[in-house]
Structures are given as C-alpha cells and as structure tokens.
Amino acid sequence: MFAGSLFGLWSFKVIGYERTSGQATYDINGVVGPETGSTCPTDKRYVDEQPTGLRDDVLAGFQQLKAEAKKQNITMCLQDGKRSSRQQQAQFDDYVKRFGTRELARKYALPPDESMHVKGIAVDIQPLSAAGWVERSAGKHGWCRRYENEPWHFEYNPDYRGGCPALLPHA
C-alpha cells in the first residue's frame, strides 16, 4: 500500500483515517524528501530526484504525468518534490536571512505548515520547457502551476482535471 511513498524512508507516524480517495493515509510532515538526485539529462544545472515521499495518489499522478511526457518526447526532471518540515524550515530561514524579513521571504518560500511540498502534493519541474508543457495541459493530468513567480512549481489535485485555478502572485 505505501511502497512507493515509503521506499528508503526510516520513519513515519500513522494517523487514524477513513479511506477517502485523495486523503492522506498517514502523516507525512516528518517524512524527509531527497536532498538531491541524478543530473537532469536535458539541463545539467538541475537534478532529477526520485519522487520519494509524495502522497500515494500524488505519486501515481506524477508517474502518469511523466509517462505522458515521455510519449511526447518531453524529458521532465523532478527538481524538487517532497520536503520535510525541517527541510522547509531551513529553506524558509535561509530566505528570511537573504531578504531580511519574513514577509519578503514568504514571496519565495512558505513556512512548513503552509508548504505543499511538506504536504507531499507539490513538485518543481525542470527544465522550463517541460514545465511549460505541463502548464499548457491546463490541468488535464491533475497538475497545475500555482504561482506567477514560480513557473516550475506544480501542485496535484484530481479536481484540477476540470481546469486550473487562477495563479497566485507568489508563495
């Protein structure tokens, strides 16, 4: 049941749940995502992480998206997927230090309790040509770009197959 999501992970906390499609089957906030991956074959500036730690339905959606891209000769790399609360906090703290205030930092990264990467439903896709292909699909595969200032950031929701919501200006 959890094989794709728990591969290589050392701990997780099971929570109570009713089996409802699209709902979390365990608490993934503490699950650590990959720190790196192999080099993206189409753009050496990026990596291609394994989709470790994504929620099961999101993992299936990502695998379907990647398979469809491959059919269309599009190379898609997962630059950044699942992050733990600790990983997200470190990134947020780095942006606070870099930009001077929490308000400015929030334009580029969210605190852990608000991040869709921590919730296991967001991925950053590279190269930008592949991200553009996903965006042009307008949610057909359940993936939508969410922020104007992040053309690589996509979130999964099966309801997006009916069309993507309006872009938010920033994180």
Descriptive overview:
The chain is of the alpha+beta class. It is 28% helix and 12% strand. It has helices at residues 3-6, 56-71, 85-99, 102-105, 128-136, and strands at 38-39, 47-48, 77-80, 122-126, 143-145, 153-156. A four-stranded antiparallel β-sheet has the order 3-4-6-5. The protein has a two-stranded antiparallel sheet with strand order 1-2. It starts with a helix and ends in a 15-residue tail after the last strand.
Low-confidence runs of at least 5 consecutive residues: 1-26
Number of helical stretches of at least 4 residues: 5
Shape: globular
Helix content: 25-40%
Distance between the termini: 32 Å
Encode the helix/strand succession as letters.
Answer: HEEHEHHEHEE
**How much is the radius of gyration in Å?**
16 Å
Strand content: 5-15%
Class of secondary structure makeup = alpha+beta
User: Tally of extended strands?
Assistant: 6
- Give the overall average pLDDT: 82
How can the largest sheet be summarized? 4 strands, antiparallel
Strand order of the largest sheet: 3-4-6-5
Which descriptors apply to this entry?
171 residues, alpha+beta, 4-stranded antiparallel sheet, two-stranded antiparallel ribbon, 5 helices, 6 strands, disordered N terminus
Secondary-structure map:
Layout: H1 3-6, E1 38-39, E2 47-48, H2 56-71, E3 77-80, H3 85-99, H4 102-105, E4 122-126, H5 128-136, E5 143-145, E6 153-156
Antiparallel strand pairs: 1-2, 3-4, 4-6, 5-6
TL;DR?
The chain has five helices and six strands.
